[in-house]
Design brief:
Blueprint: E1 5-9, H1 14-23, E2 29-34, H2 37-49, E3 53-58, H3 64-78, E4 82-85, H4 96-124, E5 127-132, H5 145-166, E6 170-177, E7 180-181, H6 187-193, E8 198-199, H7 200-212, E9 217-220, H8 222-233, H9 236-254
Parallel strand pairs: 1-2, 1-4, 2-3, 4-5, 5-6, 6-9, 7-8
Helix pairs in contact: 1-2, 1-7, 3-4, 4-5
Protein name: SDR family NAD(P)-dependent oxidoreductase
Keywords: Oxidoreductase
GO cellular component, one term: membrane
């Protein structure tokens, strides 16, 4: 399956920018959504250099009403056959304010994106939706709770949507990456997991292949994915101890 009209949110950097460039090419239209217009324009120009018709769209997805209106208009104009809900935030620490920000972007932003493109795809009887979740959606060991919860929501939302939309000609792929080497990764995480991080361009290649084949789920890297799944199957009394240890360690590092 190839795609000719594509929406990508969170496209101004990191994995979103890598996905944009991976999908760019002649006869491809890209609508690239992000908050930073300068960076978004730079990504659009790079995609245009590859022959794509790239449109930067500055939009704050946490403004649900505005996002729904603008993205619905974009779908009516471009008739997307692929939409990737990639926009998301992650913070190295969690305060009530950061938890609300995480939920607003990672949950409500995804919801606005899907609600904008789903009706058009269903009416046309075709389309592919990609949702960027995380391996943290399966099990987290002391990381920010709002981030893990938001990505668990994305995973379950996508899996439920896949069953509902399959008979209507619309595919859904849930992507659960481990650590991808992007600017969103903080220095402490990079120092701890840097050796196992996947370059953004390589991650984008894997994701595009999974979308083209309408895979139900893509989790990577394989070793880290298997470890996370294994932890999710263990009894709570055992993982609770691990979580407490990880939380104490993270607290000590934060106070250094």
């Amino acid at each position: 399956m190839s795609f000719a009209s594509i929406l990508i949110t969170g496209a101004s950097g990191g994995l979103g920018a890598a996905l944009s460039k991976e999908l760019a090419g002649p006869d491809v239209t890209l609508v690239l959504v992000g908050r930073n217009l300068e960076r978004l324009t730079a990504v659009a120009e790079a995609c245009a250099a590859q022959g794509a018709n790239a449109h930067p769209l500055q939009l704050d997805l946490t403004d649900q009403d505005a996002a729904l209106i603008q993205l619905t208009k974009a779908d009516q104009t471009h008739k997307f056959d692929l939409a990737i809900a990639n926009a998301g935030v992650a913070y190295g620490r969690e305060t009530p304010e950061l938890a609300r920000s995480t939920t607003a972007t990672n949950v409500l932003g995804v919801l606005s994106t899907i609600q904008a493109v789903e009706p058009g795809m269903v009416a046309r009887g075709k389309g592919q939706i990609g949702l960027i979740s995380s391996l943290a959606a399966f099990r987290t060991l002391g990381g920010p709770a709002a981030y893990a919860a938001s990505k668990a929501w994305v995973r379950l939302f996508g899996e439920a949507m896949r069953g509902r939309l399959a008979r209507k000609g619309v595919g859904v792929t849930v992507i659960c990456p481990g650590f991808v080497d992007t600017p969103m990764v903080d220095d402490r995480t990079r120092a701890q997991f840097g050796a196992s991080m996947m370059p953004a361009d390589k991650a984008a290649q894997k994701i595009v292949k999974a979308l083209a084949k309408n895979h139900a789920r893509l989790s990577f890297p394989s070793g880290f994915s298997l470890r996370t799944w294994w932890l999710s199957t263990l009894p709570a009394w055992w993982t609770d101890r691990k979580i407490r240890r990880a939380a104490r360690k993270a607290s000590k590092q934060t106070n250094l």
